[in-house]
Amino acid sequence: MDNKKLKELEANLWEAADDLRANSNLTSNEYCMPVLGLIFLRYAESRYEMAEKEILKEHPVRPGREFKIRPEHFQSKSALFLEKEARYSYLLSLPENVKTAGLKDKDGREIASLGEALDNAMSLLESQSKQLEGVLPKSYYKFKDELLSALLRNFDNELLNDVGGDVLGRIYEYFLGKFAKAVAQDDGVFFTPKSLVRLIVNIIEPEKGILLDPACGSGGMFVQTGDFVNNKGMEANKKMTFYGQEKTEFNAKLCAMNMAVHGLNGNIASGEEANTFYHDVHELAGKCDYVMANPPFNVDKVKADDAHSAGRLPFGLPTVNKKKKEVGNANYLWISYFYAYLNEHGRAGFVMAASATDGKEAEMRRQLVEEDAVDVMVSVGNNFFYTLSLPCSLWFFNKAKTEQTEDKVLFIDARNYYTVVDRNLNEWSEWQLRNLTAIVWMYREEKDKYKALLAEYKTALMEYAIQAESQKLAQILSATDDLPALKAELDAFAQKVRDEAKKAVEEAKRNEKKQMRAYYDSELAFIAEITSVVEAWQWLVEKFGSEGEYQDVAGLCRIADKSEVAEKNYSLTPGAYVGVAPVADDGVDFGERMREIHGELVILQKESNELMERIAQDLEAMGL
User: Fold this and answer.
1) 397, 439, 391: which is closest to 552 by C-alpha?
2) At how many degrees (to 10) do helices 249-261 and 167-183 cross?
3) Contacts of residue 205, Cβ cutoff 8 Å, sequence gap at least 6
4) Number of H helices and number of E strands within the chain?
5) Which of 43, 36, 79, 396 is nearest to 237 (CA)?
6) Radius of gyration of the chain (CA)
7) Where are the domains of the chain?
8) In angstroms, rounded to a whole number, what is the distance separating the alpha carbons of residues 268 and 613?
9) Closest alpha carbon to 331 in 365, 288, 289
């Protein structure tokens, strides 16, 4: 399934599911876990069917002998064994009045509704996996059968059978993100935006060993790491060991489901014993190959004595309110933990409040820089979180720097580099993510990766040319050497299509206008997608050329050595190093333009006064 069709499928499934919620008077919070549970159930059956085919192929039935499939056969395929009553297809086939079927649950109790049948299915699933014990939702009995039946049908889509392509994993992530926006659970803490997670994974480059997320939320770090490892032709479950801590039980359940739906195994601790400020549940200090996290920012009132007793503070406690004996801002507790968990060659990547890069705790930053642990710092702009508009920063530690990066820090200011999703949300596109990662490759002098990326750009345009219905568009894409000219031709072609669309819709019969508009909207979206790839390619080449030689770019990136960081009082704010990008002269005379604006304002003010006077007269005439 191509990306375009997958996006359409995601949007259609969400729209249908959200319409059902709107008509049920349920809040997003009440609706979230049950819907995600149904996606998981659908995934479990798809994976079961795929594993069953493989098992039967490996164990051909001999004449006169019967081969019985057992649960352990499915375990070897990273799949859950499903009893008949736990299968999605079975639940779909139940009669409208479930009570008439005479069903009983696993404990022998009569099943009187579809909700009770679903709760039983979840219990049966949990019995097959220690990782899922107490995780899956079992509150379906509260829902009306009509709503549950409609939801089951909503996810009964043959396109969701593409387990190998992890379509259901993508659907789960999509729904999780949409619920994060709707529920706004703890200011979006439980869901780290995917583009931030992906950049962290891209820069850390996990391949094998122990990965810890001590504030794991819904498990995005684990899922993206699994994808990264699997995409390199390895098996994440064999190469990586995943550990997580999450104080909030709800979020920990989301994490366990998220990992399971992506076929990942992990050890996730939850509840008060998983409060990282006071507990190292897995006893991993100094043992981790990788640490990734998006911890809650600016947490206050952390008990200083208890945090000190819990250890993992190689640089001591951050500033403590001596009267209250509390750490007033826990950002540097988290930063200390991330460093302390790493082994001698470990890497860490984490999200942190933008304010933590400067100001207080300069002594801690000094120790981190002098230890040569700080590798890369990235400033991120506003509106990357669903419920938080403030900027943030990404920090990267590396305890085993190469000769090329020793005693250096790469600063990237990406605050002005993003794609607008809507009025309140920004993200990095796929190609923008690759471009930012490419800067790190050049810093590490990995020129082969940079050149491979340029080749990927060319390949992508060739694939778009093959997909294009328009021969003219295919011809435009075949000439990829002159990127500015290509961009200009795409813009001109898009305008031509817009003009055609306007005329075609106007001339179409009334019952055909909607279909005609949808066709042209799809074509224009396709052209816009291609244009965004060309723009990203042009952005990269204009700044760094075609050879992959790193160079500082004003307003974007700069490599600073330890002595320069020391001169700036150990500030780790990228903007303090990269400076400001030069602004192109637009040819406008500022003084003249200000006089024009002032003249326009005077006219508007006069018109406003005249309008107010007229309104007053009308009101007076009406006796008001």
Assistant:
1) 439
2) 160
3) 228, 347
4) 22, 14
5) 79
6) 28
7) 3-167, 192-296+332-445, 452-549, 588-624
8) 69
9) 365
Question: Residue type for 19, please?
Answer: D
Q: Which two tokens stand for residue 562?
A: 């330890």
List the one residue out of 349, 436, 326, 450 whose CA is nearest residue 395. Answer: 349
- Which residues contact residue 17 at a Cβ distance below 8 angstroms, ignoring those fewer than 6 apart? 35, 151, 154, 175
Rounded-to-integer distance, Cα 73 and Cα 70, Å: 6
Alpha-carbon torsion, ordered 529, 533, 534, 538, to 10 deg: 150
Report whether pLDDT(332) > 70: yes
> What pairing do the DSSP bridges indicate for beta strands 342-353 and 392-398?
antiparallel
pLDDT at 289: 98
Share of the chain above pLDDT 70, in %: 91
What's the per-residue H, E or C state across 503-557?
HHHHHCCHHHHHHHHHHHHHHHHHHHHHHHHHHHHHHHHHHHCCCCCCCCECCCE
| Burial track 391-401 (b if 16+ CB lie within 10 A, e otherwise) | bbbbbbbbbeb
Name the token pair of 436. Answer: 């930012």
H-helix or E-strand containing 349? strand 342-353
Res. 586: pLDDT tops 70: no
With H, G, I as helix, E, B as strand and everything else as coil, classify residue 327.
strand
CB crowding 556-566: b at 16 or more within 10 Å, else e: bbbbbebeebe
**Cα-flanking dihedrals φ and ψ of residue 104, to 5°?**
-130, 150
- Residue pLDDT, tens place only, 76-120: 676 788 999 999 999 999 999 999 999 999 999 999 999 999 999
Residue 348 CA to chain centroid, in angstroms?
18
Q: Are 265 and 289 in contact (CB under 8 A)?
A: no
Residue 297 neighbours by CB under 8 Å, 6+ apart: 331, 352, 353, 392
User: What's the Cα-to-Cα distance from 303 to each of 81, 203, 315, 469, 614, rounded to whole Å?
Assistant: 46, 34, 17, 64, 66
Q: Structure pTM?
A: 0.83
Work out the average pLDDT over 59-70: 72
3-state secondary structure of 190: coil
- Mean pLDDT, the chain, whole residue set: 88
Q: Can you give the length of the chain in residues?
A: 624
Beta strands 302-303 and 326-327: pairing type?
antiparallel
Tell me: domain 192-296+332-445, CATH 3.40.47.10, correct?
no
Say if residue 508's pLDDT is above 70.
Answer: yes
pLDDT computed for residue 598 by the predictor: 67
pLDDT tens-digit series, residues 144-198: 999 999 999 988 877 776 644 457 767 877 887 788 766 654 444 556 888 999 9
Distance between CA atoms of residues 92 and 127, nearest Å: 22
Contact yes or no for 133/249 (Cβ under 8 A): no
Distance CA 103, CA 618 (A): 74
Angle between helical axes of 114-126 and 145-154 (0-180°, round to 10): 60
- In the sheet that 266-270 helps form, which strands lie side by side, from edge to edge? 266-270, 240-246, 209-213, 288-293, 342-353, 392-398, 374-380, 408-414, 557-561
With a CB cutoff of 8 Å and minimum separation 6, the contacts of 495 are none
CATH architecture of 3-167: Up-down Bundle (1.20)
Using DSSP, state whether 178 is helix, strand or coil.
Answer: helix
